[in-house]
Amino acid sequence: MTMGTGGPVASFSVWDYVVFVGTVLGAAGIGLFQAIRGRKNNSSGEFLLGGRQMTAVPVAMSLTASFMSGITVIGTPAEAYRFGADYWIFAISYAIMSIITAEIFVPLFYRLGITSTYEYLEMRFNKLIRVIGTSMYITQTALYTGMVIYAPALALNQITGMNLWGVLVATGVVCILYCTLGGLKAVIWTDVFQMVIMLAGFVAVIARGAVIQGGLGKIWDDCYQGGRLSAFDFDPDPLKRHTFWTIVVGGSVMWVSIYSINQSQVQRYISCKTLTQAKLSLYGNIIGLWLTVSLAVFSGLTMYSIYKDCDPFTNGDVGAVDQLLPYLVMDILAAYPGVPGLFVSAAYSGTLSTVSSSINALVAVTVEDFVRPVWKNLTEKQVSWINMGLSIFFGFLCIGMAAIASLMGSILQAALSIFGMISGPLLGLYVLGMFWRTANSTGGLTGLIVGLVITLWVGFGAQIYPPLADKTNPLPISVAGCNRTQDLNYTTLAPWTGAVTLTPLNLISRALADSWYSLSYLYFCLLGSLVTVIVGLVVSAITGGCKQENLRLDLFVRRRDLFCAGCGKDSEALDSEINEKAGSELKNGSNNAGFKDSQFNIVDKDVEKVTKM
C-alpha cells in the first residue's frame, strides 16, 4: 500500500510492545525509587507537597506534562489537520496565563502555606463555600480523568488492536502504584520522564513525514495551498469557534482557571522551596507549553500533507477524528520496529501524567478539606496511611469513570467541556475574594451558583444544538487520491430546515441555537467568571458588604507581590509582620482605613497603608 492513499495499516510488532511496556515500567520504577529514597520521611507534607523542597526545572516540566494529556497528544494534531494552524495561537494564551498566575496567584497561595487550594475559600469566605468548591473540584476531576483514560485508550485500541479494558485497568494501576508509594515527588519526576517521551513521539512523526514528503518545505507548501496556515482571523464574532480573539482572550482566561486555582497545578508550584522557584517554574512552563503545542500542531500539518488527497476519516479507514494520528503512525512508522511503540508510549505518557497528578490532587483536597477537620488528632503515620488508601480509592474511581465514559457516546465531548464550565465560576469566586474586600460569603455563594448555572446552560445547550459549519470553519478535505472509497464516512450535522413546525417553543430553540448556544466554547470560562464576580458584588452590596474587621490583610493581592524577583524568606517575614500588626489593630479596636475601605484595593508594601485603585 502506498502511504497516504487509504486502506488498512500494519499492527503492533513485538518490539512495539517491548518499547511500550518498558516505558510504563520505567514510570512505575520512578515511583518505587522515590518511595525507597524517601522511606524515612513519611509525613503528609512530604507525600502531598514533596516536603516543599522541589526546584523550578522539574516542577516546570511537570506543570507542562500534567495537562498535556493523551487527549492533547492525539487531539491537537487532529485539530490542526482539520481546522488549520490557528490552534498555535494558544502559545500567546499560555504566556498570558503564566504571567498572571505567577504574579498574582502564586504569591498569595505560597505565603498562606496551604495544601488544598480550597483552604483559601474558608479563610476568605466560610466553611460552606470551601466544601462546595472542593466538591465541585472532586466531581469535575474524577469525571475528566476518566475521560483522559478512556479517550486515548479507545483510539489506540481500534488502531493497534490492544485490549481496551486491559489497557484501561493497567493505566490506572500504574498510576495508583507510584502515587500511593511515592507521593508528589514521584508524580513530578515521572512527569519529567513522560514529557520527554511525548516530545520524542511528535519529533518521530515530523521527521518521518518530512522524509516521505521531501522536506519540511514541501509540508509547509502543501499546508499553505490547503488553507491550513491562515491562522490569524481577527473577526470579533464571539460565536465563531476559533478566532484570534476567542483564543487570546477566552483561551487565556480558561488556562488561567486551570493553572491558577486547579489543585493539580497549585500543588506543584507550592511544593517549591522558595517563592522565587515557584514563579520560575511557571515561567519555565511557558517554554514547555510552547514546544509541546508547536510540535503537536506541526504533527497535524505533517498529517495533512500526507493525507491531503485521501482523508482517512472520510474514506472510512478510521471511525473517529481522534484516531487520525495513531493511524498515521502505523501508516508511516510501522517499518521501524519500536517507533510506533514510542508514539503509543507518548500518548499514554500524557495520560499517565494527568491521571497521576489528578489522583494526588484529589487525595490532597480530601485529606485537607474533609478528613482533618473531622479527625483533628490524627498522627502523621495515620495520615500517611489515609493518603495511600485514598490514592487507591481515587485511582479505581477514575477507572470506573472511564468505564462509564464508554457508555456515554456523544456525551464524551460534553463531559470534557464540563471541566471548563466549572472552572470559570470558581475562578470568578477567587478573583472576587482576592481583589474586592467588600465581597461577603453570601455574595460569593450566590455568584458561584448563578455563574455555574449560566455556564452549564450554555454548555449543555451547545451539545444539544451544536453550531453549524459557518461558525466552526472546518477546512476542505479530499478523497480523490484514495485507493478505495466504498466505505465513505460522510458525517455532517443536519442544518435547521423549514420542515420543522414553527411553534413558539421551536422559534425560541432556533434563536438560542443560532446565538446563545453557538458561543465559542473558549468563552464559557470568561462568561462564568464575569457572572460570578458581578453577581457576587451586587449581592454583597445588597446584603451589607463584608465585615472588614474580620479580614486578614494577607488574604488579598498586594502590590509588592507583583514581579517580586527576590521573594522567599524575606517575604515570609513580611507576611508575619502583616499578620501581627493586623492582629494588634483588631485587638486594640483600631479604625485603620485599611479595614474600613469599601473600594477595590491592593495592599501596598507598607503594611499600614491600603492604596485605593
TrEMBL record:
InterPro entries, A to Z: Na/Glc_symporter_sf, Na/solute_symporter, Sodium:Solute_Symporter_SSF
Membrane spanning stretches: 12-33, 54-75, 87-110, 131-152, 164-184, 196-216, 242-261, 282-307, 327-348, 385-405, 411-432, 444-465, 521-542
Membrane disposition: Multi-pass membrane protein
One GO term describing the cellular component: extracellular exosome
Subcellular location: Cell membrane
Keyword field: Cell membrane, Ion transport, Membrane, Sodium, Sodium transport, Transmembrane, Transmembrane helix, Transport
One Gene Ontology term of the molecular function aspect: organic acid:sodium symporter activity
Primary residence: membrane
GO biological process terms, semicolon-separated: propanoate transmembrane transport
One Pfam family of this chain: SSF
Superkingdom of the organism of origin: Eukaryota
Family recorded in the similarity comment: Belongs to the sodium:solute symporter (SSF) (TC 2.A.21) family.
Protein's name in the database: Solute carrier family 5 member 8, like
Species the sequence originates in: Oncorhynchus kisutch
Designated gene of the protein: LOC109890150
